[in-house]
Write a sequence for this structure.
């Protein structure tokens, strides 16, 4: 087992830099310490996301464990320059969480494509601010949305509803549901990129 | 779906809020159409930050050690000769075809699927007509407890298997892919434990794509009935 004790643990809230790439390189070598460092950096946010979606600590633990292992298994084909490791990890956590919700309700699960990178043209907000600042920014952006748009995003992203299910839940036509998601995301993007 | 319909679904796609059929349709379209990159990237700027809207939670103290123990178990299993099997977590463990091609037990490389990276798959599609009409075959995988899809592009001899769920193979067992030609199976190789696998395979004349469970290392002939098949006709 390679040992990299000399490498400092990744600090939560740091900006994305060569640290992610170094961690990925170490993960590709099955470096246990790199996995531990990633967990120390992102475990809380990963667990918080999983728990928010599934609302159950046991399921959230399973999701977090398997998401970190999945990140390691895919490290060979991940490119840190195309999306932060944190974004990739949390994408995995989110999809696994949604799948747990859908399994519970007997709905078809998603097609997992966990290595799908965030396109390079998408600015990762981590590049611009610390994680705490980013957290405040995204929360404010969500809070400032009109209630119907905020509900649409929360019901789908955190509630695991498909857009058709969300439309039914809200008692609105599918086209209206699509509009609410689009308008909400566009408004949030403007908000978080101009603050 | 055309570009306008895809664009209509992009916000929900970015939020993982599409049903499976729409999700597959959008993904297939995006693999060969670059017009939506900017718009999708804009939406993903938001969705990549949305996890932070959830409160951080202190994870249980045992989770870190549990994670590392599972990692140790999986690494140990992979480095053991012939060590294909099931991870401690009950999932199919990684067959290290891509990650560790130098290990001795992979010397019988002809048995293994010639896996190509998904990035290569995307490049192939981008330089091809690809898209909805580009696939020679697009068929669901069928089998008990199996949920997945199979695509084949004959001009590139490119097969892509996406498996959402399939029962785990038994200990020291693997899944092996086959093309069935006039009732005769021809091995396409042992599948690595990946949700999506792209492989080079000449399936011209094959009537069926099949996956069987075999002993670690694969077999010359299927040793049992397929656990999953896709109709290529």
């Amino acid at each position: 087992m390679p040992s990299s004790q000399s490498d400092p643990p990744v600090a939560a809230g740091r900006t994305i830099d060569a640290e992610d790439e170094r961690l990925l390189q170490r993960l590709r070598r099955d470096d246990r310490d790199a996995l531990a460092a990633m967990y120390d950096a992102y475990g809380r946010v990963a667990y918080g996301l999983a728990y928010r979606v599934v609302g159950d600590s046991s399921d959230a633990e399973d999701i977090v464990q398997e998401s970190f292992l999945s990140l390691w298994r895919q490290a060979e084909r991940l490119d840190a320059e195309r999306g932060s490791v944190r974004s990739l990890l949390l994408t995995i956590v989110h999809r696994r969480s949604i799948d747990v919700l859908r399994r519970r309700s007997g709905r078809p699960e998603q097609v997992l494509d966990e290595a799908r990178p965030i396109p390079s043209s998408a600015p990762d907000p981590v590049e611009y601010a610390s994680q705490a600042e980013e957290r405040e920014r995204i929360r404010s952006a969500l809070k400032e949305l009109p209630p119907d748009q905020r509900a649409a995003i929360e019901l789908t992203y955190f509630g695991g509803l498909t857009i058709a299910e969300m439309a039914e839940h809200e008692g609105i036509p599918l086209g209206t549901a699509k509009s609410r998601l689009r308008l909400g995301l566009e408004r949030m993007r403007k908000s978080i990129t101009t603050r | 779906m055309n570009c306008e319909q895809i664009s209509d679904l992009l916000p929900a796609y970015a939020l993982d809020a599409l049903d499976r059929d729409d999700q597959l349709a959008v993904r297939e379209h995006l693999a060969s159409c670059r017009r939506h990159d900017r718009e999708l990237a804009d939406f993903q700027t938001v969705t990549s930050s949305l996890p932070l809207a959830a409160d951080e939670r202190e994870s249980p103290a045992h989770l870190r050690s549990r994670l590392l123990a599972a990692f140790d178990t999986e690494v140990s299993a992979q480095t053991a000769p012939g060590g294909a099997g099931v991870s401690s977590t009950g999932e199919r463990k990684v067959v290290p075809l891509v990650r560790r091609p130098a290990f001795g037990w992979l010397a019988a490389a002809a048995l293994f699927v010639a896996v190509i990276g998904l990035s290569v798959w995307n490049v192939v599609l981008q330089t091809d007509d690809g898209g909805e009409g580009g696939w020679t075959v697009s068929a669901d995988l069928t089998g008990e407890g199996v949920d997945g899809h199979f695509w084949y592009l004959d001009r590139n001899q490119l097969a892509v298997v996406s498996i959402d769920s399939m029962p785990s193979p038994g200990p020291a067992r693997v899944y092996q892919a086959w093309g069935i030609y006039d009732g005769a199976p021809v091995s396409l190789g042992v599948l690595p434990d990946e949700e999506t696998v792209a492989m080079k395979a000449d399936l011209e004349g094959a009537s069926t794509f099949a996956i069987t469970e075999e002993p670690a290392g694969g077999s010359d002939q299927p040793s049992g009935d397929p656990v999953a098949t896709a109709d290529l006709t």
About this structure: The helical segments of chain B are 3-14, 20-30, 37-47, 61-79, 118-126, 131-134. The CA atoms of residues 160 and 198 of chain B lie 4 Å apart.
